[in-house]
Specification:
globular, alpha+beta, 9 strands, single chain
Length: 192
């Protein structure tokens, strides 16, 4: 009888430990993922594999495909991508997106998209540190070769393009296996 009690206690202990371990794993996973456009962004997936699931980034994904940049953004990186939402693209003058998506404008589209990418992984903390070190602003050279200026407005990171247009980071530090995404509310434009 004593042995059955010990076995029962051991079984209960194993169940409790298993449940506790699963809860801890679930908790860790939920802390690592972020919701963007109604979809979880998994740090174990690359930038493109996550972005295709965001309903807020369908225009960006279509543009990346049209520009032939899918393989690049699935590469090792690391990359920092300032990802404009569909609403950000809608702020552009009417017809701009349709024009950029035409095959004959592929190089212009590539220039616009790579202006939203930094080589290396820059967390929001790193960007803010650079802004503070730069006495209120920091300049970053994008993959297309032009510069973006980062600054703070309150606690929000903002980006200023070469034409003076301002974009605000609405969701930061969406970690990816090959970098990080910061969601932005406005498309920034390089010199064209």
């Amino acid at each position: 009888m004593k042995i059955f009690k010990m076995i029962r206690l051991a079984a209960v202990a194993v169940l409790v430990l298993t449940a506790t371990s699963m809860t801890a794993q679930d908790s860790m996973m939920s802390q690592e993922t972020k919701m963007v456009g109604g979809a979880e962004m998994y740090p174990s997936k690359d930038i493109i594999s996550n972005a295709v699931n965001s309903k807020d980034h369908t225009t960006l994904v279509a543009a990346v495909k049209a520009a032939g940049l899918v393989e690049t953004l699935q590469g090792d990186g690391p990359f920092t991508v300032f990802a404009p939402t569909n609403k950000a693209f809608e702020k552009l003058p009417e017809g701009t997106v349709a024009t950029l998506l035409k095959p004959e404008n592929k190089s212009t589209l590539q220039s616009v998209l790579t202006y939203h990418v930094l080589a290396g992984k820059f967390s929001a903390t790193k960007i803010v540190e650079a802004i503070k070190k730069g006495k209120g602003k920091a300049t970053f050279t994008t993959v297309n070769g032009d510069t973006l200026t980062a600054m703070l407005k309150g606690k929000k990171v903002q980006l200023k393009d070469v034409a003076g247009n301002i974009s605000t980071v609405s969701i930061s530090d969406v970690n990816q296996s090959n970098g990080v995404i910061h969601v932005v509310d406005t498309v920034v434009l390089p010199v064209m």
